[in-house]
Amino acid sequence: MDIGGTFTDIVVHDTESGALRASKADTTPTDLTEGVLTAIAQLEVPPTEILSFVHGTTQGLNALLERRGSKTLLVTTQGMGDVYRIARGNRTRMFDIHYRKPEPLVAREDTVEIGGRLRYDGSELHPLDEDSVRAAAHTAREGGYAAVAVCLLFSYTNEAHELAAEAILREELGDDIAVVLSHRVAREWREYERTSSTVLEAYTGPVVRRYLSRIEDRFEREGIPSGVQVMQSSGGIVGAGYASEHPLQTLLSGPVGGTAGGVALMQLLGRENAICVDMGGTSFDASLVIDGQPDISTDGEADGFPVLMPLVNLHTIGAGGGSVAFSESGALRVGPRSAGAQPGPACYGRGGVEPTVTDANAVLGRVDPEHFAGGRFALDVAASATAIGGLAHEFGMSTPDLAEGILDIANAKMAQAIRTLTVDHGREPTDFSLVAFGGAGPMHAEAIARELGVAEVIIPEFPGAFSAWGMLGSDVRRDLSAQYYVHEDQLERADLARVLSELVAAADAELEAQGVPVERRRFEQAIDMRYEGQDYTLTVPLTDAGEPGLSDFAERISARYSEQHRRRYGHATPEAKVEFVSVRVTGLGANEFGHLTGERYSEDDIAARSASVWFDGRAWDTRIRRRDSLPIGETVAGPLLIVEDTTTTVVSPRASVRRETLGHLTMEVQA
Prior knowledge:
The protein contains 16 helices and 35 strands. It is of the alpha+beta class and 671 residues long. The strands form ten sheets. Strands 13, 14, 15, 20, 23, 24, 31, 34 and 35 form a nine-stranded mixed beta sheet that branches. Helix 2 crosses helix 7 (191-222), helix 10 (357-363) crosses helix 11 (381-395) and helix 11 (381-395) crosses helix 12. The two termini are 36 Å apart.
């Protein structure tokens, strides 16, 4: 289940019959569990027969974006109290004269310094000042703080001071105030980035924990035996108990389900590279599948704040079906403000009066009013025409022309979001297939592909609930890391093997705690490396667990790093010395159900239907077909609307579409 800002998407796999079903229910912002249970009831799933339940939640991310997280006290080493506020001096937007660094989540007056100091190697320079820790606890209690973020210098090499501070804080504060330790959040160097990650977990954690506790309690009362599993930002799943202990891992929980689905789809199709685009009612998310794997970074950012954890590289913008079009300084703007689920676009008939992207599609005939959202409610196209027409009058344009203009702007914004992941990193979009999903993705996929010069669009099964499908078959995943800084000339292969072995054992224990049987566990190892004198690193995978024991290991891994550097940046310096910075182990527990797909076929119950749909400034007589009725393997030329329960696929006169044996649609886009 994928809980979005407008709809809650659900995919159900019946393990006895093998059938897959998908549907949508309205998201219930005041209590998300109501939307969850409504979606389950809508597909008539007996609660007591649910074997596995996986979902993505945006509770933490929404708390961050809306700045409604918990009041947080930052506890740090004496003399380091300004690290978080100073941040970095780099400008992420070089030519934006209005650029400002994000306002910190914790103000300077909410930062407390405590005595005690470790050296860079983890040895103790000064013992922890316990009285200063008790004073910090007093500040937290009297100041009404809901969370305490503890980030002490060099704790990634020795956690003793942080653990001692935690014991004192727990003694003084009990369990009412959350205590977050930096070495548990990010056991890596870079003081500001580690502090930022710790603050983010403290700030968003209580919100996530309350939600997970509520849904677990509701499941227990409803007699659902499966328990709750949650998607992580890395593309793997964990139990709700673990997610409650590490809430930061769920920050991008919802959007990465689509990337996981993209990886599974590429594997089913024998492909390697895909641009995954998820357009819903509120936002547009773009991500990549490269060489059959999700494009994952070991660090990233959330709303401008750095995060040290493995996460799928997602680029999100405020462009969805509910994005509002408006006039500003004589120009037409679209988004990022959204009409959301309530009142929603004007055509929903819930009181919305502002023109949105969905209204523009309705006016142009690109949605079938009788089959929207599976026919659960009919669209009020007249209300869309009124909303769009008012804005069109302001610009002196016809209603259809302005509607096409709204879509052109939205499509250009989405194409630009994709370029930040491709062109900006030396990748050519034409080398990828475009996988389009989300409630609105297949409606805009062709136009986005044409903007990028991409010739092939793939519309998966259940595209409106594809992120949920991606979660359904995802593996349990745990990512562990340790700082391991050494120059290649000083590398001790036996010591490196020991550190990796310890991480594998720790990952194995965590998979066991998640209930993953031994036969379904596997482990991937990697090393963060850089050229001597460089600042940032690339993560280089090891080919097998015994590789560090090989006599020529340093030469092999250095050559692999140089090749990866060439692929990423277009150049390399193979003769340069390299440095090892961190080691990483990923523990994976294979999903017992896996990703499933299937072939369905039915008689064309609306073959004779057609509608007038606008493309390129004129109306076209356009056929309307049910997706399940399209003949397998037959190429159908546009214009065409393909309707199904979770979305509508729009095929213009300059494209054609073919339904494949595995159930997905392949669209060929002409320039």
